[in-house]
Design brief:
The chain is α+β, with helices and mostly antiparallel strands and about 110 residues long. Helix content is about 35%, strand content about 15%. The protein has helices at about 1-10, 20-35, 65-75, and strands at about 50-55, 80-85, 90, 95. Strand 2 and strand 3 (about 90) form a beta hairpin. Helix 2 crosses helix 3 (about 65-75).
């Protein structure tokens, strides 16, 4: 998301062309629209239960004046603790559940 914000500002030749909220909306609702899926990208009745839980105490999220801005510009995936897709947890405590970490050790 950070890269998208930077590129949007470069393309517009305006440092204030987009906000963190604009980028977050583009990544969620905008991504769903691009896929032609009105059941994704938002938490609402009839929508898929896809969501991310972020650790707002993570150092990359500090200071926490604007959580969306901290997530877009500083924390990225480092502050993500849990991810649910279609109501099923796929990331727990920052680790992908479908990935065998022990099998990948060298």
């Amino acid at each position: 998301m950070r890269t998208a914000a930077i590129l949007a500002r470069i393309a517009a030749a305006n440092a204030h062309a987009v906000t963190a909220a604009d980028i977050f909306t583009a990544a969620t609702i905008g991504g769903a629209r691009a896929l032609g899926r009105d059941d994704l990208g938002r938490i609402a009745p009839g929508a898929k239960a896809d969501f991310v839980m972020v650790d707002i105490t993570h150092p990359a999220m500090q200071p926490l004046y604007d959580p969306v801005r901290s997530m877009v510009y500083a924390a990225g995936e480092r502050a993500v603790r849990h991810v649910f897709v279609g109501g099923q947890q796929v990331v727990c405590d920052g680790k992908a559940l479908a990935f065998d970490y022990a099998d990948r050790a060298l």
